[in-house]
Amino acid sequence: MTRVFSGIQPTGGVHLGNYLGAVRYWVEDQRDGETFYCVVDLHALTVPRDPAELCRQTRGMATLLLAAGLDPEACNLFVQSHVPEHTGLAWLLECTASMGELARMTQFKDKAAKGGEEAARVGLFTYPTLMAADILLYQATHVPVGEDQRQHLELTRDLAGRFNHRYGEVFTVPEPAIPPAGRGARIMDLQEPTRKMSKSGGSDQGMIGLFDDPAVVERKISRAVTDAESGPDAVRFDPDAKPGVSNLLQILAAATGADPAEVAGAYRRYGDLKAATAAAVVEMLRPLRAAYQDLEADPAGVDRVLRRGAERAGPVAAATLARAREAIGLLPPGTAYQS
Ligand code: ATP
Ligand code: LTN
């Protein structure tokens, strides 16, 4: 049976990249096997955060995931810090990973470079071992994420394999479930289409928030950077040569469930492509906005969902952690005084 695990940080708002690259697939596949979706609040602590805001955004992210269509009857939605086994296993994996392999992680290099490596939190460096713990605790077979998380998943597989090899088969080695190129795997910044759409870094104009006003979505897309080509074949899907146009095609295709190369055939002018893309995005996001408003009015209901999610996730995580602890040679509690 498939076991799915994925996580999202409760940082800022969710953008179109998060939605099209990951969350949309969580919703589509939530009934395939057993699914665990996690608001990874501990990962959010790797950069300085205001405590009240972190708390608010953690519930806000859960609300948003429910608004996007996660059904608490179909999947297990919970908050990472509500299941303490995550940090318990992370330590064992920190003692499995090497400094060298963590130092090679591009996300660490990029994020640490911003504030200066000396000032980066140690947690930013060990972030991938906590992510590996998230996944391995649930014996996940599949991990749906965007392309930017591929390197972290490779590390997770390496750590699982190494641990199993040294101490015995404890962990399932997970498969990445990254959408194919052009299917939301990597939505690019509208102003700088050679870098990924991101909530940290990048301009506000380059990013579409899930709750941006329709007029704002239209304006941002109408100002998206394209290129100077004109002529009958100017609208075509070619991410290397035409990153801006291809990004719009990818967004339009993802929003309408089509193929970006095929979608291209329907347009000749960039203006028409932009108008169609904006209309499709606004239409796709409309029900999310409405559902969010309803759910937001009932925070206790969201908290109940999260509590139930943690109650179901906890025993699964505890069973794996107990096996990992025993395999690595930690004395099981309660046996010390037995003769
Ligand atoms: P930041 O943009 O600040 O680096 P993030 O959005 O990458 O943060 P998360 O919120 O943890 O970080 O990402 C949640 C999911 O969204 C992950 O599966 C990630 O791969 C995916 N994702 C993030 N950005 C994009 C993007 N531009 N295109 C497609 N998927 C993305
Ligand atoms: N690092 C991921 C978020 C994340 C995650 C996970 C994704 C934390 N733990 C486990 C999948 C599985 C990111 O998207 N930035």
What's the quick description here?
The protein has 13 helices and five strands. The chain has 339 residues and is mainly alpha-helical.
- Total tally of structural domains: 2
Percentage beta strand: 5-15%
CATH superfamily of the largest domain: HUPs
Low-pLDDT sequence parts: none
Describe the main β-sheet briefly: 3 strands, parallel
The shape is globular
Termini Cα gap: 41 Å
Give the mean pLDDT. Answer: 94
Query: Would you list the SSEs in sequence order as H and E?
Result: EHEHHEHHHHEHEHHHHH
Helicity, as a percent range: 40-55%
Number of strands: 5
Present the secondary structure layout.
Elements: E1 3-8, H1 16-28, E2 34-39, H2 41-44, H3 51-67, E3 76-79, H4 85-94, H5 99-103, H6 106-115, H7 122-137, E4 142-144, H8 150-167, E5 175-177, H9 214-222, H10 243-256, H11 260-264, H12 270-296, H13 299-328
Parallel strand pairs: 1-2, 2-3, 4-5
Helix pairs in contact: 3-12, 3-13, 4-7, 4-13, 7-8, 9-12, 10-12
